[in-house]
């Protein structure tokens, strides 16, 4: 009888050890999973995508205050910026602040606004993203230096942009705005 009791006690002790070591493995697995998730999140934020919240109405009707979007930080590693891209960049007068505007003038071009229409090198530019009836004051002409971009808000009457604080160096670009993910009714790709 005693011998059976010893076996029972040994089995119980072994089961307890397996349970404790099983919990240890579970905790280690959870910690490893959390560590991997954190590392992946940092890699994604630093190298691939960043989220951004629109702080003002300067890009209406394309982007509204409070819209949340993803910015591709790798877009301009594989292609050059083009007119019409919506870009998040470091504000030239205070690089700690991020701004979002649309590229309207490219390096080497001459930009002018006449009768509310942007002209590049003397030619009018089609801007279907603007509100109808927008009245922008005349501006320029200005020659855009190499390596710099002329940025403008879509809400021209309510936008502090390159008309006020000058052009933006390419090195200030954070990335290209590619997708609105909030609010639900506005989810979609940006063009």
Verbal overview:
- The chain has 191 residues and is α+β, with helices and mostly antiparallel strands.
- It folds into two domains: 1-51; 54-189, Umud Fragment, subunit A, CATH 2.10.109.
- Helices cover 29% and strands 30% of the residues.
- The chain has three helices and twelve strands.
- The chain has helices at residues 2-48, 75-78, 162-165; strands at residues 49-53, 68-72, 86-90, 98-105, 110-114, 117-120, 123-124, 139-143, 148-152, 168-169, 173-182, 188-189.
- Strands 1, 2, 3, 4, 9, 10, 11 and 12 form an eight-stranded antiparallel beta sheet that branches. Strands 7-6-5-8 form a four-stranded antiparallel beta sheet, with no helix packed on it.
- Strand 3 (86-90) and strand 4 form a beta hairpin.
- The longest helix has 47 residues, at 2-48.
What is the first-to-last residue Cα distance?
82 Å
Poorly predicted regions are none
Main beta sheet, described? 8 strands, antiparallel
CATH level-1 class of the largest domain:
Mainly Beta
| Number of E strands | 12
Quaternary structure classification: single chain
Q: Can you give the helix content as a percent range? A: 25-40%
CATH domain topology of the largest domain: Umud Fragment, subunit A
Give the strand content: 25-35%
Number of domain modules: 2
The coarse silhouette is elongated
| Helical/strand content category | alpha+beta
Mean pLDDT: 86
Order of helices and strands: HEEHEEEEEEEHEEE
Contiguous helical run count = 3
State Rg.
Answer: 28 Å
CATH architecture of the largest domain: Ribbon
CATH homologous superfamily name of the largest domain? Umud Fragment, subunit A
